Amino acid sequence: MLPGDGSFPSNPDPDPDVDDRDLAAAAAAGDRSAFEILIRRHGPALHRYARRMTRDDAAVQDIVQETFVAAWRQIDRFRGEASPRTWLFAICARKVIDSHRVKRAVPLDDRLLDPADTSATADPFANVSNAEFLVALEAALAELPPRQRAVWLLREVEELTYPQIATILALSPDGARGHHHRARTTLQQRLQRWR
Amino acid sequence: MAIGNYDVLSRASRELRALPERGWMAVEQRVIDAVRATPRGGWPLEVVDPHPGQAPGRIEVSDLVLRAGVARAVRPIAQLLLVDVAVTLLDKTLRGVRVELSGRYGADLVAATARARTLVTAAIVEIVGDAGTLDVDIAVTDIHR
CB-side exposure of B37: number of CA atoms within 13 Å? Predict the structure, then answer.
């Protein structure tokens, strides 16, 4: 097995019970091990967000890496007005904009779109349909304007609140709600055949 | 597959949340390595030479080393969450350490802070070599559930 070939498990969170704010305070004091727990805990979500907001893999990797490097440099100024997760997403969203690569995202390769249920008892016809649905969904997301896409992803995939999304994207909560509504309307039209 | 009448967008968000983020696995170590290679500025502080006179010069560590050691020392105390660690220096001499903590609601915070003081003092001695004249301030400044 090679790292990155899809079969190599990511390092698990060594202590899922430790609070993010506790880790952020320790990292601010200089504790790299605490910061590395934050990286492992929130890296997948930031990568997921950056991947759908940019067009190429190299840019995604750079954005995520630069996000965490910037966070490490700045964390002694983190005062906890937002949660560490919101704060990291805010840095990541700025890095996405800085990259000047906010264009139409490329839908995922079919091989990456494994159905959620891969157990032996899963219905193969349902799985094929699931993969098709995900391809259609990624294509529909890629067609959304970047801000609508960002708001929809943060709300629906990362399950953040409108005030948190507003903080991340420098919008008002009502503005975030409006972008979400427009994204939702467009996606419902694009995915009509899956109703 | 018939999807039924439930909201297709509910399914969309649920499916996206369930997908493993495989691209992350490929870059995780690269990100961690990049952070490890990123220095943070700190203030130098003199520590006690464990073998005085055996070698010229003096030993200094960054205040980040001390603050990180103190942060790690209090992490095992389940009733307390770290809020901040601050150090007071006079030139390069450590004068004081203040540890701000959040206490769990309903916990025996007197016992917890006493334990924190013991662990923090031990961490300071481990790093600096002597905590005899230091002002070690342990303060619970917030409460959490």
Answer: 8
